[in-house]
Design a protein that fits this description.
2 copies of one chain form a homodimer. Chain A is α/β, with parallel strands linked by helices. Chain A has 2 domains: about 90 residues, Tetrapyrrole methylase, N-terminal domain (Cobalt-precorrin-4 Transmethylase, domain 1, 3-Layer(aba) Sandwich), CATH 3.40.1010.10; about 120 residues, Methyltransferase, Cobalt-precorrin-4 Transmethylase, Domain 2 (2-Layer Sandwich), CATH 3.30.950.10. Helix content of chain A is about 30%, strand content about 20%. In chain A, the strands form 3 sheets. A 5-stranded mixed beta sheet of chain A has the order 6-7-10-8-9, sandwiched between helices. In chain A, helix 6 runs parallel beside helix 7. The radius of gyration of chain A is 19 Å and the shape is elongated. Chains A and B meet through helix 1, helix 4, helix 5, strand 5 and strand 6 of A and helix 1, helix 4, helix 5, strand 5 and strand 6 of B.
């Protein structure tokens, strides 16, 4: 299970690169497989599936591994953060293969910190990571977590803030955060961090909905001390300067 | 500001490597500078300082940059997660250099996901990152955040769980988490992830204090669905299998 980071080869760790080079079979979501095109030499078997094909993709990877192939199951970012690592471990256990196959999880630069780097340093203090996708998680639980995170003055990182079908969640999340965070709390939106179509927007909680977001966006909302410094966002850690 | 990941060259991104190769001056905390020894060619100036010298280290980096040098200010893991990026941006602003110097934050594999990869896939669902160091943060606020995170059934990642001088914080954190999480909630401790002296321990909240922790350890406590799968920890995301 290989984390490929944001997508550019400059952000792919040598450990991940080696795993991709050594694998006979590479399995992953279409969009991310395309970012790896230079590595996909003709002798490799490539299995790519669409966005909601996670279980199918994992089962195909396991089938190829059971047949004796070295398989790289690819996640963009880090495979352990809303990626494929957990599902793969669960299916390997179900198939009784967890102890017989050599399994390794190779970390990658996760979207939260890639996006943060483009915004400056918004994650310098305690933060939460929450996905706004309610495909697999009851929306009530997501709302509860948003409220608690805002009450604790955490910096909040939102994964999956919207999709084609889901457009109201970010508005509701903003309402909940506004019960604890000031409207002028700085916020940032990074779409396609470190990819060709990258866009970086610095805004605040009040104006958050004026900026377009989608599945390729990460939204970060500061804590009460987060502020702008030039073009950057900074959350002070508390050093005396 | 360069994130070098866990420490092994295999986890250093090509973007970070290039920055280190191009820099005339490399500034960082002693222990992490030692991990970079193979890159420290004789023509480079190396400035390393002790653990609590963050402000001094940053000022030295800025002085060298102001004098016209390309400077790499090194953080292990990701520079934006309890690293040097925020402090550096604050000091650059204070010195009026934020718009005149070319500033770049280069992300790295952060300790939370490096440790998680060694444990399996504990971060597959919403999680919080909290530092137990009260050097810069009032302990009351840390306790409040722990309680809210536990009440929200977040997976909890603890940075700086203990140091030579601080030994009681993890015990208190465990008490707080036990008000919301079951004693058999799986937990993991990873010390020196991906370094020579790595150790990985899988335990649970009840037995958490029986395992030694220090500044080089990351502690991860699961949510109510986290479970063991073979030697791994897995937090299911909710797929039907």
């Amino acid at each position: 299970m290989v984390g490929t980071g944001p997508g550019d080869a400059a952000d792919l760790s040598p450990r991940a690169l080696q795993a991709l080079q050594e694998a006979r079979v590479i399995v992953g979501y279409k969009t991310y497989i395309q970012l790896l095109a230079p590595l996909l030499t003709p002798e490799k078997e490539v299995i790519s599936t669409g966005m909601t094909g996670e279980v199918d993709r994992c089962r195909q990877a396991i089938d190829r591994a059971r047949a004796g192939n070295s398989v790289a199951l690819v996640s963009s970012g880090d495979p352990g953060v809303y990626g494929m690592a957990g599902l793969a471990l669960e299916l390997l256990e179900q198939e009784g293969l967890l102890e017989t196959l050599a399994v390794e999880i190779i970390p990658g630069i996760t979207s939260a910190t890639a996006a943060a780097a483009r915004l400056g340093a918004p994650l310098m203090h305690d933060f939460v990571v929450i996905s706004l996708s309610d495909l697999l998680t009851p929306w009530d639980l997501i709302e509860k977590r948003l409220a608690l995170a805002a009450a604790g003055d955490f910096v909040i990182v939102l994964y999956n803030p919207a999709s084609h079908k889901r457009t109201g969640q970010l508005a509701r999340a903003r309402e909940i955060m506004l019960q604890h965070k000031r409207p002028d709390t700085p916020a940032g939106i990074v779409r396609n961090a470190y990819r060709a179509e990258e866009s970086v927007t610095v805004t605040n909680l009040e104006h958050l909905l004026e900026c377009p977001v989608d599945m390729l966006s990460i939204v970060i909302i500061g804590n009460r001390e987060t502020r702008r410094a030039g073009r950057f966002l900074v959350t002070p850690r508390g050093y005396r300067l």
